[in-house]
User: Fold Metalloregulator ArsR/SmtB family transcription factor from Streptomyces tricolor.
Amino acid sequence: MSNNKVLPLAEPDSDAAAPCCPPLTERPFTADEAETAARMFKALGDPVRLRLFSAVASHEGGEACVCDISDVGVSQPTVSHHLKKLKEAGLLTSERRGTWVYYRVEPSVLAAMGKLLTIAPAAV
Amino acid sequence: MSNNKVLPLAEPDSDAAAPCCPPLTERPFTADEAETAARMFKALGDPVRLRLFSAVASHEGGEACVCDISDVGVSQPTVSHHLKKLKEAGLLTSERRGTWVYYRVEPSVLAAMGKLLTIAPAAV
DNA sequence: CGCATGCTTCGATAAATGTCTATGTTGACG
DNA sequence: CGTCAACATAGACATTTATCGAAGCATGCG
Assistant:
């Protein structure tokens, strides 16, 4: 199916975690960089997805099954739909263990997004 | 002393800059928090807006007039529309000086978003 | 004045998105 | 097996959004 490769995540080199782009403040983004980065921001640009993501990210052990986090005010298929989007954006990974499917955050992507938002140190 | 700091984002506690929410990893977001934070992420969730924002943020002096940044492949009214969205999201401010309108980034909001993406240091 | 320039606002429209119900699929269990 | 529970997929529908061209406001200048 559509198990499209997302974001070429960073290899743990030393600092890495910058799969796509420099800080937003460093230089104007190219069209390609903007396309890539926007996909990640867009994934978090929905309140339901943000709650789901936060629920997974803050859950004990760093992972949660759908049943643990599906109380966000929308139907079960909608939850599933949003989790899929988050997965496609590279923010979450999933794994089935028996009856349940567990979701887990991809920390490197989180870090990469954080870097986008840093203020260029020597600027100003 | 190499920079092995895990996430050199904004200094903790250095400035407020967090008008909305704790880090995404700290605890599950409430509906209200998610609504607020999603608005900011959504503003950066469009490639054109991301390019415009990056162009302003990286422009010399920290500000740019529309004429400096409007070469992003869409019509001028569309540029204006996106700049308005960024302003409504609190990411940019604008000021008219003579013939031109200058846009400038709101650094505290940038920092606040960065904090959302930090990994909780010693959580759990 | 009158006109050119920079930017915003106004409608219109096609595409994308979020949501639902209904249905599939996969695994556990008796 | 048969059935139930947990998730995922499919299709439908309403709303939002990105975009454009045209028109409207300012501001500066001759």
